[in-house]
Specification:
Number of strands: 9
CATH topology of the largest domain: Rossmann fold
CATH architecture of the largest domain: 3-Layer(aba) Sandwich
Strand content: 15-25%
Helix content: 25-40%
CATH superfamily of the largest domain: Vaccinia Virus protein VP39
Radius of gyration: 21 Å
Oligomer: single chain
Order of helices and strands: HEHEHEHEEHEHHEEEHHHH
Distance between the termini: 55 Å
Structural class: alpha/beta
């Protein structure tokens, strides 16, 4: 697909602005505008929404989001080399694209967004998980965003949607599924990107729940899951012994066998344990 909006094909944009992807920035450019439009559509109806995009690069997904009717796209880009290419997109969509030059981990992004908000991004591999955890753990819930549609390495995507007793199940699955419905909506092969990464990628959609699936204190849940999964092959009575001598009784009180391992315990049981400990 050459173009969706009268702008040049992405390969031409990259050649014009000499945009060689930088490994240290976690960059892998998605050049097929068919695919970027498909990712944009997978985020649902964008009309009337502000859309936050992190790491737009040459702007393939940015163009898809605007073409699909996003009220406004706020694109955060650390790489100054891409700014002229993004400025060309802004000129083609007057008043609908705001480009913030900086590090998404350091900027107050909420200050630039007006609800309703959706976050859609092909996240740089080196900061993707950290950004996700930040978006899942705001001080106030529900958050400013209604959904996250994010591309990760496929293994990370599988960790987000994993169920108990599977290899990928861990803290990321618990945190994501405690506050969201999470599903993989698209899988992409390495050759879809320039340069091609060594792994497949996948797009995950997380839809914010009005309130967490089960009540508990977030800080306590984080603490016990960190202890449990940092030693995931140990029995819980061993991995959680740092909670104190009463931990076996607390496990028994919520129906968790002290001899069980973290990967065997579901979200509801972890939340019950967090309440018991709190």
């Amino acid at each position: 697909m050459g173009t969706i909006d009268g702008l040049p094909p992405l390969r031409d944009v990259i050649r014009t602005h000499d945009l060689v992807a930088k490994k240290q920035l976690g960059q892998n450019f998605l050049l097929d505008l068919n695919l970027t439009a498909k990712i944009a559509r997978s985020a649902g109806d964008l009309t009337g929404c502000d859309v936050l995009e992190v790491g737009p690069g040459p702007g393939g997904l940015t163009r898809g989001l605007l073409a699909e009717g996003a009220r406004r796209v706020v694109a955060v880009e650390k790489d100054a080399r891409t700014l002229p290419a993004l400025a060309e997109i802004a000129a083609a969509y007057p008043g609908r694209l705001t480009v913030l030059h900086g590090d998404a981990l350091e900027l107050d992004l909420a200050a630039h967004l007006t609800p309703p908000v959706k976050i859609v991004a092909n996240l740089p591999y080196n900061v993707g998980t950290e950004l996700l955890i930040r978006w899942l753990s705001p001080k106030v819930w529900p958050p400013i965003w209604s959904s996250l549609t994010l591309m990760f390495q496929k293994e990370v995507a599988e960790r987000i949607v994993a169920k108990p007793r599977t290899d990928h199940y861990g803290r990321l699955a618990l945190l994501a599924q405690w506050r969201c419905d999470a599903r993989i909506v698209l899988t992409l092969p390495p050759e879809a990107f320039t340069p091609a990464p060594k792994v497949h990628s996948a797009v995950v959609q997380l839809t914010a729940l009005p309130q967490p699936r089960f009540p508990c204190d977030f800080g306590v849940l984080q603490r016990i899951t960190a202890m449990a999964f940092n030693q995931r092959r140990k029995m819980l009575r061993s991995s959680l012994k740092g909670l104190g001598p009463q931990v076996e009784a607390q496990l028994d009180a919520v129906g968790i066998p002290p001899t069980a391992r973290a990967e065997e315990i579901g979200l509801e049981q972890f939340c019950a344990l967090a309440r018991q400990i709190a």
